[in-house]
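Suppose you are handed a protein chain with no further information: no name, no annotation, nothing but its sequence. What can you learn? This example shows the usual starting point.
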Amino acid sequence: MTDTDADALLRAIVSNPDDDTARLVYADWLQENGRAEQGEFIRTQCRLAAATPEDPEYPELLERDEELRLWLTAHAPESRPDFGGGLAAGGDESHWWVSHRGFSRFLSFDGDRHPGVRAVRPLAAALARAFERVPTRWLVLTFVSPEQLLALLKYPVLEGLRRLTIQFRPGAVEETNDAVRALAACPHLRNLRGLFLASRFEDAVCEALAAAPWGGLETFSGPCNDLSPVGFRVLAAAPWFRQLRVLSVGGQFPADVFEELCGLPPLPRLHTLTLAGSTAPPAAWDAFARSRTFPALADLKCEYNMMTEGRFEALAGATGFALRALSVTACGLSPGAAAALAAAPWASALRVLKLTWTALPPGDLKALAVCRRLTALQQLDLSHNSRFGPAALAGLAANPALAGLRSLRLAGYRGPGALNTTHFDRFLAKLNWPDLRHLDLSGQPVGPTAVRRLADPKFAPLRRLGLRECRLTDAAVARLLAAPALQDLIELDLDDNRLKTGPAALGDRATLPNLASCSLSSNKLPPALVRKLRKRPGVIGL
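A reasonable first move is to predict its three-dimensional structure. Written in structure tokens, the prediction is:
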């Protein structure tokens, strides 16, 4: 195919943004024309978009997606289109980190930078131009006023949207409620598949939201801290609510609203649920454990919830679903939580487990590390648990159930009586996981002696290695960079090791030839070396 063929494919992608056919043919063209990574990126993201957390390949797709994002950020910088009207493709992050199915994930408009109703007409015109140039159909509105939203809802161009995020400026709740009512009644939003309300709303608008003509809505996210059980019940009775696949409930939602959620009739398509900011009592989590509302739930994310006093234990005893992924972030857990998780009916089905900032005691961390039921686990993240000790570290390496792990993250900070370099020397000597691609030991006292273990051929599958603030020396880093087993690394984090000359080999692009990201901030490299390393794509933090 020629460049003309590629242009025709891009036009087809823009004209049919919901169809993957043209995207996949374009990915083949990229593969045939020296842009194999970008082609693979499109194929990977299309497969991810079509998959669910229950699919066996889901963790591996997520992992490869991140690897490709890193590589493309360093080696395939993209210029963002200018649509005018305050509309931008993506946010402030790198283009590749805000991509979906190979192209920009969203279009954004900042009401703080473009205030007033007069900014809306240029925005609508810019949105029409964007729909002619890119396949992106998600609009993110931040810090807009209710008046701006009311004006925008009059424009038919919104019929092209599939997803919409709205964050209002702080203001009177009555004005916000009026704007949400108008949103629900807008005839131009019938094609929405995802709605993300980042500002609070009250019971008064639930009836209007429930009556919205969103027959294809699959994702809903909103804070529920101002809702009563009656208001939530009205919202949950909406026909579109019953069809949701992804639901996020946050904003320190009341316990009685949580219990109302748990008492709903089955949501047969819901596979991903996020619960954030709940202080619900143990009885509410007992209701969650007994609930039959979530028969298809595969991915549960708990963030900033109070989960002590038996709450987590109740969750672990739930039988109404079979989780494949569990993420618990910044939720205090009581002693015994790990034992409860090990006994969970679905523990042997977990593929992804994240327990970070949980303050688990050493005994629990050890119990988790030696659990023989985690045989399906592919990704384990125990970062920022300061009481992670020698017994837990040794247990991880010796546990045959974890032999299939592809990603292990133990980043954190050192607490009292924590690990030392001898513990990591023994850990890395014992570790033998043939599929391990991502290892993050940042913040741990790995030291120069233990880090030499990473040069062993058994670590050849590694693609991402985190060694930030690990007390490394120049000699140890030089040996690491020369190790044949590590030449396929895509990402290497060496921040804050007080290095001077150790990274010098990175000046030669034959060293780690696939490198996409190497962070070297907070070191003491000489100016001449800094100038040399800045010429290499992907070397950052200088």
